[in-house]
Design brief:
It is built from 18 helices and eleven strands. With 472 residues, it is α/β, with parallel strands linked by helices. It has three domains: 36 residues; 220 residues, Glycerol-3-phosphate (1)-acyltransferase; 91 residues, Arc Repressor Mutant, subunit A (Orthogonal Bundle). The strands form two sheets. Strands 1, 2, 3, 4, 5, 6, 7 and 8 form an eight-stranded mixed beta sheet that branches. A three-stranded antiparallel beta sheet has the order 9-11-10. A hairpin with a 2-residue loop joins strand 10 and strand 11. It is globular and about 100 Å long.
Length: 472
């Protein structure tokens, strides 16, 4: 009974690994899951009590369940059968392709990460970089929105900061689901973004199977009441002007909408603007067809240098925020009211009948956004410098032109944001920012636009071009 048994070292190591794995799998991992699930449930309970639009069951459903539901959606199954017949391919191969698309698109929303980590990061970053302000918002109208409806925030796209800014401002009301492009699929960023409820979109894909899977996911999320945020322009504005609307995502939301049976879909226009867009020079440079493409190493090195420079300014107590980031909210558009007034039913319309209606709706939304994009100090300064680009002006003359421009904008009922400290201070800060960024040349106490920075000045001036009676 006490005799020793000798076994090879490799057998001992194998048994040790198996035992360790069994302990982790059967004891440790279930305990950790129980602990995390308990924390998540506590967060959900706390948050649901204060959100205007509660988190939907769809958002907390296991990701694999949503993937299976999407893969075996009747419309997707039909598309698989059609392609298999047309190309004489086995259904299993096409089904595997569909599964890959579903895994790529479907998010894995984590309420704890969204409201504890994501909200904290968004708040800190937004307030660190900008003076965040909400200019126009009709709280009474927002409170009238049926909390059971599907709310869709429709926005212009100025910067990648838009995701952070709007998520931070909306976190007191609801959890937003974004459509993000290929840039967000970089490891490990994609895991964090997916856990925040975002879903990935191949914006230029013409693959009909992929588009079908994407359409059915958006249809499911919309039908289940998931609050979403859509950049109607489809991408970042590179010249500062509002781009023409893209209709795809809105069409997916409305394609099967039955205004008599489904929950209402409410679109809320949102206008965004910044005194400084972090990627402004890169966006403007993309307009130059002769500019050679920057290498990934150059982009990484430049970004790192920008961060390091600003960190050192913070250490030396010489750093200043990048002006204001302002958000305005427009009048809500209820799809039930929209359908009732026009006497239409989207779920009965074919593509040729439906698409013109969707186009009209998107243009109406874009027109609403156009009239609520905040007028900020840097846009006024840039417009003034461009209008007088051939003249040297004293600081007094510059201020005179600026205030006349502000008066004209107010007469036209433009959404001019008036800072609490008044326009004198705000204009002074914006003008100094333009000087520090070499947009302004100075000589003997007089100023004019730097000829080499006209493109970047035009970018900021174009944010208010809709109020100037023409575009640059």
């Amino acid at each position: 009974m006490t005799a020793s048994i000798s076994i090879p070292l490799w057998v001992f190591l194998f048994l040790l690994i198996v035992t360790t794995w069994a302990i982790l799998y059967l004891v440790f991992i279930p305990s950790v899951r129980w602990f995390l699930r308990r924390r998540i449930n506590l967060v959900l309970k706390e948050i649901s009590s204060r959100l205007d639009i509660e988190i939907r069951p769809f958002q907390v459903t296991k990701r694999q369940v949503l993937i299976d539901r999407l893969v075996y959606d009747p419309h997707v199954i039909k598309a698989v059968a059609v392609k298999a017949a047309e190309e004489n391919l086995p259904r299993e191969a096409i089904q595997a392709e569909i599964l890959g698309y579903a895994r790529e698109i479907v998010p894995s929303f984590n309420a704890y990460l969204y409201f504890r980590l994501g909200y904290w990061i968004a708040k800190k970053v937004a307030k660190l970089l900008y003076g965040v302000r909400v200019g126009l918002v009709d709280n009474e109208e927002l409170e009238k929105v049926d909390p059971n409806s599907t709310v869709v925030f429709v926005m212009n796209h100025r910067s990648n900061m838009d995701y952070i800014l709007v998520a931070f401002l909306a976190a007191e009301r609801t959890a937003l689901s974004y459509a993000v492009g290929e840039w967000a699929r970089i490891w490990p960023l994609h895991t964090l973004i997916r856990s925040m409820g975002a879903f990935f979109v191949r914006r230029n894909s013409s693959n009909p199977l992929y588009r079908m899977v994407l359409e059915r996911y958006i249809h499911m999320a919309t039908k289940e009441g998931v609050c979403q945020a859509v950049f109607l322009e489809g991408g970042l504005s590179r010249d500062g002007k509002l781009r023409n609307p893209k209709y795809g995502l809105v069409d997916y939301m409305l394609r099967g909408f039955n205004n008599e049976e489904d929950r209402d879909i409410v679109f809320i226009p949102v206008g965004l603007n910044y005194d400084r867009t972090l990627e402004d020079r890169s966006l403007v440079r993309a307009l130059d067809p002769t500019a050679h493409k920057r290498s990934n190493w150059f982009v990484f090195r430049t970004t790192l240098g920008f961060i390091w420079h600003n960190v050192m300014l913070m250490v030396l107590n010489k750093w200043h925020r990048f002006g204001y980031a302002c958000v305005n909210f427009g009048a809500c558009i209820s799809m039930k009211d929209f359908c009732r007034k026009r006497g239409i039913r989207f779920h009965r319309l074919g593509k040729e009948e439906r698409f013109p209606v969707v186009e009209d709706l998107c243009r109406e939304l874009m027109d609403s956004i156009k009239h609520i994009v905040p007028v900020l100090p840097i846009s006024v300064v840039a417009r003034t410098l461009l209008d007088n680009s051939d003249e040297w002006l004293s600081e007094f003359e510059v201020n005179g032109h600026i205030y006349r421009l502000i008066e004209n904008l107010l007469v036209r009922r433009a959404p001019v944001y008036v800072p609490q400290r008044g326009w004198d201070k705000a204009i002074s800060v914006a003008f100094n920012m333009a000087r520090l960024r070499h947009m302004v040349k100075e000589s003997e106490g007089k100023f004019r636009a730097d000829p080499e920075s006209l493109d970047i000045l035009r970018y900021y001036a174009n944010a208010i071009s809709q109020w100037m009676g023409g575009d640059e």
